[in-house]
Amino acid sequence: MWNKRELERKIEEWLQEDIGFGDVTTLSTIPESEQGTGILYAKEAGVIAGLPIARQVFATVDPDLVFTAKVEEGQRVEVGQELAEVSGPVRSILSGERLALNLMQRLSGIATKTSEYVAAVAGTKARVVDTRKTTPGLRFLEKYAVRVGGGHNHRFALYDAVMIKDNHIKGAGGIAQAVAAARAAIPHTMTVEVEAESLEQVREALEAGADIIMLDNMSLETMREAVALIDGRAVVEASGGVSLETIGNIAKTGVDVISVGALTHSVKAFDISLDLNTRKR
């Protein structure tokens, strides 16, 4: 799922950013001995992601806090539904509240949006995948949220697959030259993807032996022609300007994969709140 040590390190950094030398409001207004329970609940309908992350946030703030999930990760919830409760020292609950909510809201927003895109291609063979258009420092969590929402991950970073785009093609002197140079430099286990902006470039990518051909910002008709031209000799990916309104028709062209930057780069946070000692005492 993710590297546990990396997650712990990140959470410590984020808590330091938020708490610093101390939560002055909480420390000055809440007695140290005060115990309580905070209820996390949904203020809108959608898909929940990030419960394990919230658990780790509260555990990092104070090991004495007890976090209990009320729904499953990836579950669709309704307005007002209880998601989790955290019990223990009130000071600790309040100090960890904002980071836990921020992360769950971001991840649940991504999971919810992803689920909408996945539903829009139901009945086709197209797989909805994310991109590298993620928040710096949050990529591993945001890509996790895409999976929770029913989508799939594209390459994680620049190091795990070759993707030859327009500037690489220009710099290498052409698609054939770029693919040949990549093949000579990478392990045989690594795939090579080529971005094509025209049917001519699709032909060049096929001749060069690309494993995956990305159809970049093509019309539906051109996509259909490209799918027929490729004829199963490479994985076909559609990309560029994909929205909930367009993805269904894109999927019907016969492409294998549709990459959607909007899953992570501009998603709306899911609305979650924490109420202290108001629903359970």
Keywords:
single chain; 281 residues; alpha/beta; six-stranded parallel β-sheet; four-stranded antiparallel β-sheet; 11 helices
Short description:
The chain contains eleven helices and twelve strands.
Structure in words:
This protein has eleven helices and twelve strands. The chain has 281 residues and is an alpha/beta fold. The strands form three sheets. The protein has a six-stranded parallel beta sheet with strand order 6-11-10-9-8-7. It has a four-stranded antiparallel beta sheet with strand order 3-5-1-12, covered by helices on one side. A two-stranded antiparallel sheet has the order 2-4. α1 (4-19) packs across α3 (51-61) and α7 runs parallel beside α8. The mean pLDDT is 96.
Going across the major beta sheet, what is the strand order? 6-11-10-9-8-7
Head-to-tail CA distance between termini: 35 Å
Task: List how many beta strands DSSP finds.
Answer: 12
Radius of gyration: 23 Å
**Average pLDDT over all residues:** 96
Sketch the topology as an H/E string, one letter per element. HHEEHEEEHEHEHHEHEHEHEHE
Helix content: 40-55%
* Shape summary: elongated
